[in-house]
Amino acid sequence: MKRSALVAVKLAVSLALLAYLFSSTDTRALEQRVRSADLLMLAAAVLCYLVMLALATWRWRLLLETLGVDAPLRGLTSSYLVATFFNNFLPSNIGGDVVRVRDGSRLTGSTAASLAVVGIDRILGFGALYVLAASAFVLGGPVERELAGARVVLVGLALVFLGLSYVFFRPGTARGMLAASRLDRIPWLLEQFEAAQGAVRSYRASVRTVALALAASLAVQALAVCYYISVAGALRIPLPVSAAFLMVPLCTLLQAVPISFNGWGLREGLFTVYFVQVGLPRESALAFSLVGAGLMLLLSLSGAVAWLTRSRPVPAPSVGA
How many domains would you assign to the chain? Predict the structure, then answer.
């Protein structure tokens, strides 16, 4: 009941935001811009998306191999496609992670270890987004530095990542936190914690793996920005590259806040605010966001095909996952 109510609230927020944006935007100009899209530039965006998926899958395989797991690339690719599909079509942006944890646990033999792998993979992805946004903020001009919320988000996330780095690189910190909370008295939880800690120790001892995975994450997130730059080119929107490298990571980080249905409405609202600040019209922002997100949604349907053609399909995660 609570899950259904939460989904309903998120859907209502998204619909309300989109209704407001469409009511305050020149929809004729929006339609004309979308209809005149350059198909060649859209093809470039699709290419960026495909390379992103390939690199993200390779990063996952790298993290698994560090634990001594022989992970076939074909199977991981299928799993990643399915995960991407669930992330886009379920009212939760972690539904796909459930798929990857379940598939990974069959390889590692431990759900906790698989969860640790996916968790580190996620943290590296968000860390790469932060590095791109912070670099664009420092290297950009006064217009980029005044983007709404940029300073607050970057400072806040700096503190979060410093805390995570401290826990990761200082052995015994996580165990101390578990003991302080007295959760270590629960045998099942302690067993899962030990399994996850084993994975973390493996990465702590392999700086090369973490560095390669972070480099792959930076490449993935840079390609995500290039994807949106290609969408802007397809719609003939003169979006400055320096602004895109700050806007896209900031929007991706902020839309992870679970207050809307998979970021719909919130993402479009953020891009509208950013576009207006750099002197671009509202209809350009709405077209940019809708086409970019819509094309990703369409491409992620390949995950539905991968899921349906599995010999032993993974059950769809629940909407509250």
Answer: 1
pTM of this structure: 0.86
Q: For residue 13, tell me if it sits in a domain.
A: no
Asked if residue 300 belongs to a domain, the reply is: yes
Domain assignment present for 32: no
DSSP class of 92: S
> Could you list the residue range(s) of the whole structural domain that residue 275 is in?
44-308
Collapse the DSSP code of 35 into the 3-class scheme (helix H, G, I; strand E, B; otherwise coil) and give the result.
helix
CB-facing half-sphere around the CA of 45: CA atoms within 13 A: 25
Please list, in sequence order, all residues whose beta carbon lies within 8 angstroms of the beta carbon of residue 165, skipping any fewer than 6 positions away: none
In a domain, 49, yes or no: yes
Per-residue pLDDT of the chain (321 residues; tens, 9 = 90+): 667 777 788 888 888 888 888 888 888 888 888 888 999 999 999 999 999 999 999 999 999 988 888 888 888 999 999 999 988 887 666 667 888 888 888 888 888 888 888 888 988 898 999 999 999 998 888 888 888 888 888 888 888 888 877 777 777 776 677 667 766 667 756 566 666 676 777 777 788 888 999 999 999 999 999 999 999 999 999 999 989 999 999 888 888 777 888 888 889 999 999 999 999 999 999 999 999 999 999 999 999 888 888 755 444 454 444
